[in-house]
Amino acid sequence: MQVVNMSDKPVLNGNKCVKKEENALPACPDVTNGCEAGVVDVEYIDSENLTDLPDVDTSLSSLLARLDSKDWVKTCEALNNVRQLAIYHKEKLQELLEPLVPLIVKSVKNPRSALCKTALMTCADIFKAYGELMANSVDLLLMPLFLKSSQDKRFVCEAAEAALISMTSWISPSVLLPKMQPYLKNRNPRIRAKASVCFSKSVPRLGVEGIKEYGMEKLIQVAATQLSDQLPESREAARKLSLELQAFYEKSQASSSGEGDSTPATSPEAESWEAFCQSKLSTLNAQAILRVTVGVPVAPKEVGVPVALKEAGIALKGGISVAVKEGAVPIAPEEGGVSVAPKEGSVALGC
User: Fold this and answer.
1) Quick check: 346 and 323 in contact, CB under 8 A?
2) Which of 46, 50, 129, 256 has its CA 20 to 30 A from that of 286?
3) Which three-class secondary structure state does DSSP give residue 303?
4) Residue 323: in which H helix or E strand, if any?
5) What is the per-residue pLDDT across 200-226, written as a single tens digit (0 to 9) for each?
């Protein structure tokens, strides 16, 4: 439980706003209505410490009106009522979810920190309570949550991150991933970073079959793109995603190879992680993924250069094999299928 002494915030204990100063004037949403705000203590109550409402029906009947109130103190009380109802009476509150979410979003966007944080705590609780039922409301919440989780006020940022964790924990990744993917290309690097973190946390919950269904190729392209992002937070999320995808891919290949003798065997090269990355990504992106997952980037094959010659340090230049390692003996070219001795004066090229 967190208590902060500020002049613009109420004490919220269940559904009651308590003021610490006996003679303090009533707290008002602003000074434009001729009322001076009193000094109050703010109490942010953890979900496990919220108690049940004494009168559920009365609270429900006025809930939407109080959430849309111009008095931010009443709005905070209503938000805590939403949290209590989601925990103790989720079936009754479910009927109000559709008109409820836009009002919660409105409070999340509010510049008053106390109101914003209370709304963010409400988001975390309703994600947990309703899970998949919140899928249609995610579009309204994603941008505000990404913005608030990347702002400078730490206590607001932490509440937003907790809401995002709740969202990725309780809503199916198959629903979330397509909704979050556009934010990975947002112009704001902080939004990209937060989206990248949420995306990487959601992918493992798909499981092997879910990843196959969503598309390994699509996921590895996302990871490769984010590895070169501007912010370290985004790059670290992409690194974790790359490692997860490698583990899932290798596990999938191992399980499919043991399905039975009737399954035609494929070459080790075609099944390898390196071969997959090189076949699905550009040269630079493949090297970036392999640098993270393998440790050493695997150079792509060069057209017309046999692997054996390349590994032996031999390059083909103008149709003539030339040793490129220092001290190596040049390989004589062939004319008409017959080896011909090197021309007089020819030398091996040192690297």
Assistant:
1) no
2) 256
3) coil
4) strand 320-323
5) 999 999 998 899 999 999 999 999 999
DSSP 325: S
Find all residues with CB under 8 Å of 181, minimum gap 6, and list them: 199, 222
pLDDT at 40: 54
The residues of the chain scoring below 70 in pLDDT are: 1-42, 257-271, 296-351
Listed in sequence order, the DSSP H helices in the chain are 56-61, 63-67, 72-88, 90-94, 97-108, 113-130, 138-149, 154-170, 173-180, 189-202, 207-214, 216-226, 232-257, 268-271, 273-280, 283-293, 307-311
**Measured CA angle at 113 (ends 65, 69), to 5 deg:** 15
Exposure string over 286-298, b if 16+ CB within 10 A, otherwise e: bbbbbebbeeebb
Q: How much is the pTM?
A: 0.72
- Measured distance CA(57)–CA(310) in Å, rounded: 78
What distance in Å separates the CA atoms of residue 231 and residue 5, rounded to the nearest whole number?
34
Q: What is the pLDDT of residue 255?
A: 76
Six token digits for residue 350: 């040192």
The continuous run of DSSP H or E covering 5 comes out as strand 2-6
* Geometric angle at alpha carbon 24, from 18 and 26, rounded to 5°: 70
Up-side HSE of residue 37: CA atoms within 13 Å toward CB? Answer: 16
DSSP 114: H
What is the token pair recorded at 10?
């109420």
DSSP run (H or E) holding 111:
none
Residues 84, 76: Cα–Cα separation, whole Å:
13
Q: What is the CATH number of domain 1-136+160-168?
A: 1.25.10
Determine the Cα–Cα distance for residues 323 and 296; give it in Å rounded to an integer: 25
How many Å apart are CA 135 and CA 130, to the nearest integer?
9
Cα–Cα distance measured from residue 211 to residue 39, given in angstroms and rounded to the nearest whole number: 53
Nearest to 273 by CA among 256, 255, 298, 307: 298
